[in-house]
Amino acid sequence: MFGPVLRGEHVTLRPGDDSDPPRFIPWFADMEVTRYLGRRMAVALYYEVEMLKKLGESDQDVWWVIEVAGEAIGATGIHRIDWLNAHGVTGIVIGEKQHWRKGYATEAMRLRTRYAFRELNLHKLMTEVFVGNVASRRALEKNGYRTIGTSRDHFFTLGRWHDVWLGEVLREDWERAQTA
């Protein structure tokens, strides 16, 4: 499903629409953008159109486009939601490289986390990040994610194996940090 519009100070999360699939093609064709995604993605328009359709119809995903000043710069979501056990797996990509290192991912994660705990009533969010992706890990930690371990040699990409940092945030810990 597409998430509702969520507005932050600089970032807006909005539902996907028919104008979005073409913008993903240059992002996912850029090896610098995809180097930490753990897999290469098809960059054909028909694939992106189908993915957007599947996300919109899914009952185990909540997905948004990330906008800054009306410009789509990336996407984020909560995936593989287990409604019975109240947890999901988060992910994010900032496709517009000129918007890297400006705090937009951190703010998008904050909006996404708040929605997960306050609106979806989830108990836990989990994620995995390439160990080398220090900026993403820092943004997650600013949003309450804690280290639960490292999965060694988890992805083979760019000609070698990569370790993955595993993190999670519990609603009770996140709520406590909101009042501190």
Provide a brief overview of the structure.
It contains 6 helices and 8 strands, in the order E-E-H-H-H-E-E-E-H-E-H-E-E-H. It is α+β, with helices and mostly antiparallel strands.
List the helices and strands and how they pair.
Blueprint (H helix, E strand, L loop, with lengths): L5 E2 L3 E4 L6 H9 L1 H4 L10 H13 L4 E7 L2 E12 L4 E8 L9 H16 L4 E7 L3 H9 L3 E12 L2 E11 H9 L1
Parallel strand pairs: 5-6
Antiparallel strand pairs: 1-2, 2-3, 3-4, 4-5, 6-8, 7-8
Helix pairs in contact: 1-3, 4-5
Verbal overview:
The chain has 180 residues and is α+β, with helices and mostly antiparallel strands. Helix content is 33%, strand content 35%. It has 6 helices and 8 strands. It has helices spanning 21-29, 31-34, 45-57, 104-119, 134-142, 171-179, and strands at 6-7, 11-14, 62-68, 71-82, 87-94, 124-130, 146-157, 160-170. A hairpin with a 2-residue loop joins β3 (62-68) and β4 (71-82). The longest helix has 16 residues, at 104-119. The model has no long low-confidence stretch (mean pLDDT 91).
Keywords:
180 residues, alpha+beta, eight-stranded mixed beta sheet, 33% helix
Q: With helices defined by DSSP (H or I, 4 residues minimum), what is the helix count?
A: 6
Please list the strands of the largest sheet in the order they lie side by side. 1-2-3-4-5-6-8-7
**Mean pLDDT over the residues:** 91
Task: Report the strand count.
Answer: 8
The SS-based structural class is: alpha+beta
- Rg, rounded, reads 16 Å
